């Protein structure tokens, strides 16, 4: 199952795809858990988390398909470059939307006595939201609900940023592999 021999560039492409899949699966697990918690409390899940889950599910499917096609030496590198670029844009949007309120949040102070009043207000807001069946949980309220939730959302944000870098890198690898495959074969030298 070694696949085609594209040298270091091909090995790099495979490693990047594996790292992408692992990061995407981690994000899917965390986002699905949060959505499950919201639904369990009879609330509509946050659009931010649903969008994150949608993008990452599509991306993990894409990673699996392109990895299989690469192993079978049937991957169209130019199309892959375009698709990697498209997923890069989608993941930049995810990183920005998830990270905008998170960037202002200090997870260490959640639950401490210095912020007990704001935590109390947040608890009242969440309780009011949870008491209404089908009420929508505001993402900005959800991320500050507990220290653990805050850290897990920051993990999703960090993995989203890492995925932006990985998809940019795999797009560069794809275009280089495409150029290499289109290059003229070297002329043989007759002795």
Short structural summary:
The mean pLDDT is 86. The chain contains 6 helices and no strands.
Helix fraction bin: over 70%
Topology pattern, helix = H, strand = E: HHHHHH
**Coarse shape:** elongated
Gyration radius over CA? 22 Å
Mean pLDDT: 86
User: What fraction strand?
Assistant: under 5%
Give the helix/strand class. Answer: mainly alpha
**Number of helix segments?**
6
Poorly predicted ranges (pLDDT <50, ≥5 residues)? none
Distance between the ends: 37 Å
Number of strands: 0
Q: Largest sheet at a glance?
A: none
Explained architecture:
The protein is mostly helical and 191 residues long. Helices cover 74% and strands 0% of the residues. The chain is built from six helices and no strands. The chain has helices at residues 7-40, 47-71, 77-102, 116-131, 139-142, 147-182. Helix 1 runs antiparallel to helix 2 (47-71), helix 1 (7-40) runs antiparallel to helix 6 and helix 3 (77-102) packs antiparallel against helix 6. The longest helix has 36 residues, at 147-182. The model has no long low-confidence stretch (mean pLDDT 86).
Question: What attributes does this structure have?
Answer:
74% helix; mainly alpha; 191 residues
Q: Topology of this protein?
A:
Elements (H helix, E strand, L loop, with lengths): L6 H34 L6 H25 L5 H26 L13 H16 L7 H4 L4 H36 L9
